[in-house]
Task: inverse folding
């Protein structure tokens, strides 16, 4: 499991990459370290968590440790107390399996972003508009649906969709967000047919001319929100951090703009710093 740690008083490469400031050792000793779980390969999780970590560190003066993992271990870590919280619970559908298993061991602070959506997407030049319509064109799609990393909730939904819509000739190809979008870009440049797992918010909607396939059976749900979950002990460990995470919210447009900036080559450090600089009232509302 990859760990990115921000210890006050010692400048590490990871902390420099995340853009978090450092405080005198004496001040650091008075504040507990806040551990946040995230999925590094998911742009929404990566950016949102780094933004929250920036505020916790610079404004609330707690050292922050970011713990990168896949979705399942991220939930387990919050429930067990190995991490204090996460800002990447896609509910009510995507991470339903994880949440139903662990909901009694975590505190749900509510949505930090609303208006999410998941499904399958194809380039707009592909004359297929429904998931069920994929079956008769399996060979043109190379008999595959290009997914993301193993363990992702959208992959679980896609396996259900293959059965629900009778896509007998298809298999789910697991990869990563970067690999999936790279294949999408290459296919579009060649006007080839491709079907990928897709979600909102995600920068590829601003980058590519694509469309969701209709899902009348609601295998992927009707949309939802991304929630913040914390370990029950956080409220006594760091009350100010607990209150901040309870108030922390972004709009889909704000997150997609930051995601696209990172995709275009800007560092997460600079993107997060620019957001904080340009939204002082919003940041203040999280802390008041």
Result:
């Amino acid at each position: 499991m990859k760990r990115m740690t921000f210890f006050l008083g010692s400048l590490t490469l990871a902390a420099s990459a995340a853009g978090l400031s450092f405080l005198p050792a004496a001040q650091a000793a008075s504040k507990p370290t806040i551990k946040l779980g995230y999925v590094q390969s998911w742009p929404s999780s990566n950016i949102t968590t780094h933004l929250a970590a920036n505020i916790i560190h610079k404004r609330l003066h707690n050292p922050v440790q970011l713990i990168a993992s896949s979705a399942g271990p991220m939930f387990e870590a919050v429930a067990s107390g190995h991490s204090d919280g996460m800002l990447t619970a896609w509910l009510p559908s995507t991470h339903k399996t994880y949440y139903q298993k662990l909901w009694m061991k975590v505190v749900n602070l509510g949505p930090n972003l609303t208006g999410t959506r998941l499904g399958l997407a194809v380039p707009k030049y592909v004359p297929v508009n429904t998931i069920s319509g994929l079956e008769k064109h399996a060979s043109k799609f190379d008999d595959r649906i290009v997914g993301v990393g193993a363990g992702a909730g959208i992959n679980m939904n896609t396996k259900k969709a293959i059965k629900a819509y009778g896509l007998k000739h298809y298999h789910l190809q697991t990869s990563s967000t970067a690999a999936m979008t790279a294949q999408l870009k290459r296919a579009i440049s060649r006007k080839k047919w491709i079907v990928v797992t897709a979600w909102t918010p995600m920068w590829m909607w601003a980058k590519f001319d694509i469309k969701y396939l209709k899902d009348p059976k609601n295998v992927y749900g009707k949309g939802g929100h991304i929630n913040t979950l914390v370990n029950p002990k956080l409220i006594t460990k760091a009350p100010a951090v607990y209150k901040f995470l309870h108030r922390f919210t972004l709009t889909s447009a704000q997150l997609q703009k930051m995601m696209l900036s990172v995709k275009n080559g800007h560092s997460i450090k600079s993107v997060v710093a620019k957001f904080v600089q340009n939204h002082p009232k919003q940041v203040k509302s999280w802390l008041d």
Remarks:
- The CA atoms of residues 119 and 220 lie 6 Å apart.
- The first helix runs from residue 13 to 18.
- The chain has a mean pLDDT of 90.
- The chain has two domains: 3-115+224-287, 117-212.
